């Protein structure tokens, strides 16, 4: 069963999602780390550890919430609730960017991210589109966190704006009844 181990920033356990994950995965080892960005014991691993490391889950707080103008399929690329991924497609660009550390990292401060999305959407004089899935596959992440139901239901309260996220997975049953 995924994950084999959890590496976590202790502050993450003060958030609602952090507490949920702690109780969901209480039967695997939890190892405290200073920063989700730099886990020395994993960085030192040889490349051949890559498949094993994909089975680790990293939990922390996302500090940079800076949006990047996109102007292609959306107005902005938005750093959202995860980066990296627990899958292991051999052509994945994440492997090029993160090398052996392309494991799934979850960020528990989703309320702060949602607040920024809604405020930015409502400040605009038109409906703008936020791409929230450019750092990870959120449908796959959702099987661990339930974040997509939470996200869609909360963003549906915004008077303006749209969210978009691409996926290659089909675990969408929990999303179909959601008020969007
Ligand atoms: S599902 Fe997407 S993000 Fe995950 S390993 Fe495959 S290509 Fe990479």
Compact summary:
With 180 residues, this protein is α/β, with parallel strands linked by helices.
Describe this structure in words.
The chain has a five-stranded mixed sheet with strand order 2-1-3-7-6, with no helix packed on it. A four-stranded mixed sheet has the order 4-5-8-9, with no helix packed on it. The longest helix is centred in the middle third of the chain and has 14 residues. It is globular, with a radius of gyration of 16 Å. The protein contains seven helices and nine strands. With 180 residues, the chain is an alpha/beta fold. It has a single domain, classed as Rossmann fold. Iron/sulfur cluster binds next to loops.
Overall CATH class: Alpha Beta
Number of strands: 9
Portion in beta strands: 15-25%
Shape: globular
Q: CA-to-CA gap between the ends?
A: 32 Å
Annotation keywords:
180 residues, alpha/beta, Rossmann fold, 5-stranded mixed sheet, 7 helices, 16% strand, globular, binds iron/sulfur cluster
């Amino acid at each position: 069963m995924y994950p084999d181990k959890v590496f976590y920033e202790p502050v993450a356990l003060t958030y609602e999602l952090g507490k949920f994950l702690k109780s969901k995965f209480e039967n695997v080892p939890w190892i405290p780390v200073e920063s989700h960005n730099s886990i020395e014991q994993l960085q030192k691993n040889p490349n051949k550890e890559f498949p094993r490391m994909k089975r680790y889950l990293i939990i922390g707080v996302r500090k940079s919430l800076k949006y990047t103008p996109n102007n292609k399929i959306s107005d902005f690329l938005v750093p959202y609730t995860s980066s990296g991924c627990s899958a292991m497609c051999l052509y994945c660009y994440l492997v090029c960017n993160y090398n052996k550390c392309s494991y799934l990292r979850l960020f528990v401060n989703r309320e702060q991210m949602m607040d920024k999305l809604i405020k930015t959407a409502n400040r605009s004089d038109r409906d703008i589109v936020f791409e929230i899935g450019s750092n990870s596959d959120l449908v796959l992440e959702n099987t661990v966190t339930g974040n997509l139901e939470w996200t869609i239901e909360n963003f549906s309260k915004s008077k303006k704006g749209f969210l978009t996220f691409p996926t290659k997975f089909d675990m969408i049953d929990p999303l179909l009844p959601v008020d969007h």
